[in-house]
Amino acid sequence: MFIILIAHIPWNTWADWIPARFGFSDAADLFVFCSGMASALAFGGVFTHFGWFNGAARIVHRVWQVYWAHVGCFLVTIAMYVTVDSWLGENRYIDADSPLNYLFTDPRHALTEFLTLRWAPNYFDILPMYIAILAMIPAVMALARVHPALVALFVAGLWSGANFLGWTITGDRVGNWGWFFNPFAWQVVFFTGFAFARGWLPAPPRDRRVLWAAIVFCLICAPFSCQYGFACYAGWGYAPSLGETHDWLQPAIDKTYYGPLRYLHFLATAYIAYVAAGVRGANLTGPVVDLMRRVGQQTLAVFLVGIVAAQALGMILDATGRTFWTTAAANLAGCGLLVATAAAVAWIKSPPWRKKAPVKAAPVAIPAEFVPETPRTA
User: Fold this and answer.
1) pLDDT digits 0-9 by tens, 112-142
2) How far apart are alpha carbons 81 and 308 in whole angstroms?
3) What is the DSSP letter of 314?
4) Whole-angstrom distance, CA of residue 294 vs CA of residue 312
5) Distance between CA atoms of 330 and 334, rounded to whole angstroms?
6) pLDDT digits over 55-93, tens only?
């Protein structure tokens, strides 16, 4: 969540040092993978213990929640842009070059297409992908009742359809392009996490040889990974061959269609984290880890706040200037806001008024006519 916030603050120099600058996969992969694991834990048991129909109904409810979260986040951000532009007396954030300008040039079609998920503008494209993948869970659970291998065929088939047949969902009727996060491709990383959490895939062994292979692979990928940021494209300008290699690898590392090399890189980073965490997370201790765990437990709320806050912090930096200190203050303030959001949501989900206080029962005088007679013995 912290990395996603930093990555979404416009022109943020801290974003030059996030993991995405040193590898083919990034925080989005981890977010979707963990969402798959969380979904398996949250919804898998409903399918198992209460039947497929009740499980599917639970998924519909979650899709409904995420859909309105998507709509609300979009409207709040648009309102913030419009308000700031009116204060400034100019179209700085909603201008002709903004991907959101479609809403103001053709509001009738834009609103209809946004609400039906046929318009997924840049920056508001990950939750539609999440909605589409959630909707696949009932089908996956139905296949798993027959055999988990059918799930693998289903996942591989959707990914192949996206990569070789061009399956996608229209994200812009005017520009005729699909969703940036193609759900038919990205479901592969979601259901990988889902399968691990459901036990369809066994936990990998902690093998030192595999660990070193993963580390070496990630180190080899790093020089070819960075596409933008702190002038790192083409080896900081001194090695054009690195940039040419990056372009040559593009089909294998593509983000929209989730290229196979990107998937392999994510699995390597996930394995390194898995080994580093220790058995059942034994190495994940301390106040910093506890703080991150609390933030991760409130993913949707924290994500929504981070998306809006990132744009607000970008506006503040536009006004104050992007010095070392203002940039540091903006990033730290944003991270603090995510922590506060997680704490507030956790408190709301377990409010003190729901806790049953111990009640000491007062003695009650029972009328004699209601006291049963003691059986007589012979």
Assistant:
1) 999 999 898 888 989 999 999 999 999 999 9
2) 10
3) H
4) 24
5) 6
6) 999 999 999 999 999 999 999 999 999 999 999 888 888
